[in-house]
Amino acid sequence: MSERYEEGVEEALDYLREARAPLGMQMRVLAAVREHEIRGSSSRRFSVWIWGGVAAAVAVVVIAVGMLEVRHGSARVGVLPNLTARTGQMAGVPEKSAPAEAIAKPVVVPVSGGSHRVVRVAGVSRVKEMRSYPAPAEPLTGQELALVAIARSANKAEFAMLDPEQRAITNAAEEAEFKRFVQQSY
Amino acid sequence: MAAIEVLGLRWFAVEASKAEFDVAALVSSYSEVLYRVAFSILRNPTEAEDTVQDTFLRVVQHRAELEAIRDPRTWLIRIAWNLALDRRRKVTPEQLDDEVAAKMEAKGLAADDALAAARRMKKMFGAIDALPRKEREAMLLSVIEELSTGEIAAVLGRSEAGVRSLLFRARAHLRERLQQQDAAQGDMR
């Protein structure tokens, strides 16, 4: 019984043992390898050129960005003095309604050594710059705080006293009333 | 620029010819044993040949490592073995033993005898496939006469004693399984 199984197993294993490679397999494998090599080398060559092109493009972009940065840096030097010199405007406070065209004009910039230099500033970049640096919120003064407190308390008499004309009329009426009271007392 | 291109082309040509030479020598020396390794798992000539081809394509892809490999034969067998195991997952059971009967006829058996032998063999292969993975793998590798126990151990990542033990257990399990199958069929009758 056991021998019968052993024979069966050996028969199956012999089938695997006797397997021989089909005719021409070596040639087919070599042809496939050669084809793969040709495709691989051409794609490698192609990829070398592609990567070279990409590297060149990146270098051009980096140089262009660097040059733009240098130009923007010099433009900023010309903008700042003009901002502080503007009439009636606090330094650093953004001018929301200023059109770009109105700002785009040559600016005279003092340069070290007593001479001056004219710098043409693009309006758009100036507006962008102002928007990039908004003025910080300043704390309210004592008067402003008092005004806010009165407005919130909703006391009409106090609120009316803030008007100088109204205050003068009220003071005059009070004074007249006081005089009348004094005269009546005599 | 043109000089760089010419140099690049020469370098690629030299590399390609070197790789081709190395691979040609490897194909001529090892394709037969690799085919048997793949066939022991796949039991299908076309699939086994494709596995051999894939093995050498892997060699081309990793040709830089070729010089550092001490035993290219075991290295190649391991590649073919792993590729065949991967391929086996995609092969349907119908594709496995479809040429057994034809081979039996080619050996000189009558058509009826060849068919009976094929049926018997399918049953054996079914029992082998049902063995635990390590035992099955040790048994299939032991079929390849060119492989020593040491090489089988290297492919399976075991010691030689471990491989011998796996082979012994595989035989015992196989006998047990076949007896159980026969007993079950006897009960059904």
What does this structure look like?
With 186 residues, chain A is mainly α. In chain A, 70% of the residues lie in helices and 5% in strands. A two-stranded antiparallel ribbon of chain A has the order 1-2. In chain A, a hairpin with a 5-residue loop joins strand 1 and strand 2. Chain B has 189 residues and is mostly helical. Chain B contains nine helices and no strands. The chains are: A mainly alpha (186), B mainly alpha (189).
What's the helix and strand layout?
The complex is a heterodimer of chains A (186) and B (189).
Chain A: H1 2-17, H2 25-85, H3 100-103, E1 106-110, E2 116-120, H4 123-132, H5 142-153, H6 156-160, H7 164-185
Antiparallel strand pairs in A: 1-2
Chain B: H1 2-42, H2 45-61, H3 72-90, H4 93-96, H5 100-106, H6 111-129, H7 133-142, H8 149-156, H9 160-188
Helix pairs in contact in B: 1-2, 1-3, 2-3, 3-8, 5-6, 7-8, 7-9, 8-9
* Secondary structure category of chain B: mainly alpha
List the helices and strands of chain B in order: HHHHHHHHH
How much of the sequence lies in strands of chain A comes to: 5-15%
How far the N terminus sits from the C terminus of chain B, by CA atoms, comes to 84 Å
